[in-house]
Task: structure prediction
Amino acid sequence: MNTRMRRAAVAVAATTMAVSLAACGSAKESGDKAEQSSEKKGDDLKIGLLLPENQTARYEKFDRPIIEKKISELTGGKAEVVYANAKQDANTQSQQVDTMITNKVDALILGAVDAKAIANSVKKAKDEGIPVVAFDRLAEGPIDAYTSFDNEEVGRAQGTALLEALGDKADGGTIVMMNGAITDPNAALFKKGAKSVLDGKVKYGKEYDTKEWKPENANANMEAAITALGKDKIDGVYSANDGMAGGIITALKAAGLPKLPPVTGQDAELAGVQRIVSGEQFMSVYKSYPAEGIVAAEMAVALAKGEKLDSIATSKVDSATAKGIPTVLVPVVSLTKDNIKDTVIKDGIWTLDEICSAKYKADCDKIGLK
Result:
């Protein structure tokens, strides 16, 4: 792990001190295999880690190294992490779960490509006595634990920021709503949170559920919206994440708008932060990946050892197929040009030099980011 990532992990240590692994006792028995899997497990563990895609920078750049590092710390370097990325393919991910079962992992951390489609694979793992931690997205099936961000709050933060940016057009203005993929349960929560703020205030000129979260699909959708509505009839754009915001802004610029409407985002990707600096994107949502990754690692190690999660999971949520799933939700922050220094730079996610590269140096100077 590089120096920047170590700084990021340290920066959120206070957030996760309360989730120590002091819990003791055996996990509730659920069949002979589950009972056997929880007996006499020390630090010599095998933990499976399945992440959904590699188009969004966070999974490979932040989540994977954070989780691997924390598992190593919790087990004195004795645990093995078996990793695979599904690259946005639900069938591939199902096969990866089968491979994890064959490899007899002691626990599985799963970032689902398709929350519903993966349910049968989760049940297969459970039937083999392998506990499953749903990471970032609430997969269906007999999940043992779940950690993510407060996803409705993400949407509320986006919606609130968009209304602020709209100014006098916040009452009755026309926006385009670019939601995430329908296969991702988080996308529905982002949408729900945003609409709880936007409903009754703005008009939805066009609304899209963007296939696979792909920027090129958001770009095509935005081009269609511009054609349908007219480039001078779009007051703002709700974009569920930064990658799509990039595709949206490309379409808006190509249409020749004299001034770009405010566009939201999420994930605090470097390109997104730089667009905020330059004024092309109004905001993003900063989520502490170290805090989320550390909790996932703690949950997986505890479950692999047959320990309870009482000291880790402070709340419970229900999925469509399971009730009372032990859960930790990590807070989020609305990121604008005014708090870049106090969030992503302070936490070591991005350095000042990375954000304020030669192309953006003058923009950084203009907003006092030095």
